[in-house]
Amino acid sequence: MTIEEYADLARSFGLYPIHVESVPGHGDMSFIGTLAEYFQAVKAMGTMTVFVSTIDLSEDLFIYQKIDEDDDDDDKDQDSDSSMMKRK
Fold first, then answer.
1. For the segment 73-88, what is each residue's pLDDT rounded down to a tens digit?
2. Alpha-carbon distance 46 to 44, whole Å?
3. Which of these, 36, 43, 28, lies nearest to 82 by C-alpha position?
4. Which residue, of 14, 50, 60, 84, has the greatest Cβ tally within 10 A?
C-alpha cells in the first residue's frame, strides 16, 4: 500500500492522515509536508494555537530527501514542495 492509498483509506473513514517520519537516532516524530499542510493538520487536530519560535534555522536542522538524478524534472518539482524539519 502506498502512502497515498493509505491516506485515501484513512479519509474514507473520516480521518485526517498526518504524514510524519521518525528520524533515526531521535525519539521525535517529524511532520512531512508544506507549511500550509502543517496548518491543515493542526486545525484537523482541533488545536487553536501553534508555537512560534524565533530561532535562526541552521542547515543542520533540515533533512533532505535525496533526489535521483535520473528522475524527470516533473518529479523534482513535486519533491521541492515538501520538506521535513526536525527539532533539537
1. 554 444 444 445 544 4
2. 5
3. 36
4. 84
